[in-house]
Amino acid sequence: MSEKMEVVWTVEDESGTVLLAETLAGWAMPGTVLALDGDLGAGKTRFSQAYAKGIGVPGIVNSPTFTIIKEYKGERLPLYHMDVYRLSEPEADELGLDDYFFGDGVTIVEWASLIEALLPPERLQIYIAHLGGEARRIAITGIGPRYAAWCGQLQGMGAK
Ligand SMILES: Nc1ncnc2c1ncn2[C@@H]1O[C@H](COP(=O)(O)OP(=O)(O)OP(=O)(O)O)[C@@H](O)[C@H]1O
Ligand SMILES: [Mg+2]
């Protein structure tokens, strides 16, 4: 299995995004890092909500824009949900993000590319782009053997 692999998951509507998130949630383990990016309003937070539900977080997961980081207690694993849209890289550096990335839970970072230098080298990158209406093109890049293998599994499920 190669160290880096990219697949594209095209969805016609919200249920396709939810299915992807639930699938990935099923593979979650301590130290999993998902780096989310994409068009404004494309569905980064919607994806995160479905993922949270998938790892057994009860209740509603909202966009953490104003709090930067929210922690949730999932049935299987803790979830650390971040939105770094309003942060500069030096500000983010102050937060000691490695404690989350290399901790016991799963970290989802919305707008992750804004703090790329602070991200762990191995991660799953997800870019959600509008295709018109509810359709989305979701590009998924696994960096590192574990995440590249997930992309291989997604390919087996129909991702291109
Ligand atoms: N295929 C789809 N996938 C995800 N969300 C969709 C889809 N089709 C429609 N939607 C709707 O689009 C909206 C996406 O909003 P969401 O807050 O998740 O976007 P976002 O990328 O987090 O936005 P922001 O850039 O402001 O953080 C939701 O209202 C959702 O119901
Ligand atoms: Mg959002």
Automatic annotation (TrEMBL):
**Keyword vocabulary terms for this entry:** ATP-binding, Cytoplasm, Magnesium, Metal-binding, Nucleotide-binding, tRNA processing
The protein's location, in the record's own words, is: Cytoplasm
Q: Which InterPro entries match?
A: P-loop_NTPase, T6A_TsaE
Q: What is its main location?
A: cytoplasm
A Pfam family cross-referenced in the UniProt record is TsaE
Residue ranges of the TM segments: none
Q: Family assignment?
A: Belongs to the TsaE family.
NCBIfam families hit by this protein = T6A_YjeE
| Protein name per its UniProtKB record | tRNA threonylcarbamoyladenosine biosynthesis protein TsaE
What species is this protein from? Paenibacillus glycinis
